[in-house]
Amino acid sequence: MRILHKNWIFIAVATLLGVAIAAGYSLTLTPKYQASTELYVSVRAGNSGAATDLVQGTSFARQAVTSYVSVVNSASVLDRVIDDLHLKTTATALAPKVTADSPLNTVLIDITVTDSNPQLAANIANSIGQNTSYVVTNELEKPTGGTSLINIQTIQPAVAPSKPTSPNVPLNIILGLLIGLAVGVGVSLLRSILDTRIHNSHDIEDVTDRPILGAISYDPGAKKRPLIVHADPRNPRAESFRSLRTNLQFVNFGNGPRSYVITSSIPGEGKSTTAANLAISLAETGARVALIDGDLRLPKVADYMGVEGAVGLTDVLIGRTPLADVMHKWGRGELYILPAGRIPPNPSELLGSNAMSQLLNTLTAEFDYVLVDAPPLLLVTDAAVVSKLTGGAIIAAASGVTKKNELAAAVRALEHIGSRLVGVIVTMLPTKGPDSNGYGVYGYGVQNEFEDESVIEKRIRRAAQV
Fold this sequence. Notes:
By secondary structure, this protein is an alpha/beta fold. The protein has 20 helices and twelve strands. The protein has helices at residues 2-6, 8-28, 51-72, 75-85, 91-94, 118-140, 169-194, 201-205, 228-231, 236-251, 271-284, 301-305, 313-317, 323-326, 347-351, 354-366, 382-387, 404-416, 447-451, 453-465, and strands spanning 33-43, 98-101, 108-115, 150-156, 212-217, 259-264, 289-293, 328-330, 335-338, 369-373, 393-398, 421-429. 40% of the residues are buried.
């Protein structure tokens, strides 16, 4: 049902296309008419007229009638029909238009002629009946010097039909509809089977058993206003980041350092905007949050947050600048930004150094949450290296973009070095369709709880105590 719901437009188009093709095909065909006649075959009884003669004659007629059916399409009959009606054709060309059969255990012969001219079809059928009787009684079954005992009589003459038998437009349209529907459904199922991208929770569960921390809906204007939590706090997408914040608090409630690496499998999955919005939503609760731009190859946090990024993490790691001088306080809460600084030639070595470990220990001791935006796992080892120094990694997977094998490879990259995968964040989730609300996205029924964070905090504490 999810596949049908997701591909209903394609299925509808395929169905309508099937109907259109069937209707167009039917209109291009020349109408065909059928006219039928029926012959009765009998055997004359002997002079005695005894009942036994009648029975024998009827039995003979039933046996002979099967042979007479084949005579109908013979050249002996059709040539005579062509001469009688002055037709400009041959027996070979006329034969496919003529069919004859005999109902089981009867002495009847049914002859049907199909032609584009209804009156001509009736004339040919009647002529075939007359000439079949003549050929059988005067050429095939006539004894030498005597009269044939076989009698073939027309009991139902053919009349010109008023309606064509083909094309059967309603039937063709129904067949076109069914074929179009079958093609649409079949192609949709095939696309779903061959599609290896992440779309819903089941796809992620096939790759990892780690929890889905949140679902961020797709926003075509995300590049213009990446900090949706700050720019439009009432936006449903902003609420989804608050839901992510709540889930993250619950996952690691009272257990280990609250420092996380936020990464992805490949570029373009929204990891940097996710890290920035998550940091803002965490700071809304009054928590002290440090957001580090650990992407020393393509840093974006400074641009998103609107802070000076010329000096930052790299300067701290090499001992050029004290940490306090490059931490930027952001907003009215306790959110601090540490930009990437200059792009170094050896990002992996810097991020895995003792200086980085000491920096994270210092920040973890001072802040409630430390978030590190790191490069994609499948391109470089930076995120995996930093994840060993934090409380775990969070992977952003874009719905409809990330492939299962890519997410699986990212998970393996963390498992191979013994890093902890905290969970997965689904980004770019469709706003409509079967995959739009499969992850518990924002709904108006829970808006008041998002506004009152104390309610959520109480529930988390109760759950942790249980």
